[in-house]
Amino acid sequence: MQPRILTYDLAGAGDPLVLLPGGLTGWLSWIPLQGPLSAHHFVVRVQTIHNELGSEGVVGDVHYNSFTERESLRLTLDELQISTADFAGWSRGGGALLDFALAYPSKVRTLTLIEPAAEWVLDESGRGATLTDPETRVAMKKLAGREVSEDDLADLLVFAGLAGDAATVRSDPSWDQWVAHRMALSWPYEDVDPARRDLANLADVSCPVLLVRGRSTGQWEYETVEVLAEHLPDARVVELDGGHASHLEKQDEFLNELERFLH
């Protein structure tokens, strides 16, 4: 699959702030925060290809990869004539922004990563094997390019820290929305440049980085932030009450921390 300009929504004026979503409901997750942020920034809320097509029920293209995602973001910035911006990404969006910053450090003024999905960080640190159940990893990879069942969805929500257990997740108020977008999970995110994924290369991300995690999040998300904080040159960690979506659970606190960081 070739890179293309992403679907985007614009709001506000000022310095550009680009928002990348998580891997399930996509850019909908940023809607509650876009309005307040647009009071001080030119907010670019983007919808990644896998979220857009997956939310339409399209099964993942097995040729979709990190290059497609990274270069699609670059093309979108070029379309908007944005040479440098502040960036914020949650979960898979955070992982994608970390890849983007490694490839294009000069384009990134600041980076806000909310529990980024960057398993390679744990693997390179030696912590991945003890924190992530191998069977879960295999199950997640098997979702690529095939129909995602409700059982698959429930298992992944537990793994991601968005639900306590698969038996009760169907009673969550967000369950129907998650079900509607579940095919986004069938889109793979294989890296095409594994040499870049080396902890030593994080030293090249010289911009200020805000790392956000929930106090009750899963251990692998917690430790991913921990490893990044140890290896990024200019990073600080903020913890909020809540789990994997703590920035949505505690929106006011998150917005205060983000505005303080950006100014």
How would you describe what is shown here?
It is built from twelve helices and seven strands. The chain has 263 residues and is of the alpha/beta class. It has a single domain (7-262), classed as 3-Layer(aba) Sandwich (Rossmann fold), CATH 3.40.50.1820. A seven-stranded mixed beta sheet has the order 1-3-2-4-5-6-7, sandwiched between helices. Strand 6, helix 10 and strand 7 form a beta-alpha-beta unit. The termini are far apart. 42% of the residues are buried. The model has no long low-confidence stretch (mean pLDDT 91).
The number of helical elements comes to 12
- What spatial form do the alpha-carbon principal axes imply? globular
What structural category arises from helix and sheet content? alpha/beta
CATH superfamily: Alpha/Beta hydrolase fold, catalytic domain
Number of strands: 7
In short:
Helix content is 40%, strand content 16%. The chain is an alpha/beta fold and 263 residues long.
Task: Give keywords.
12 helices, Rossmann fold, alpha/beta, 263 residues
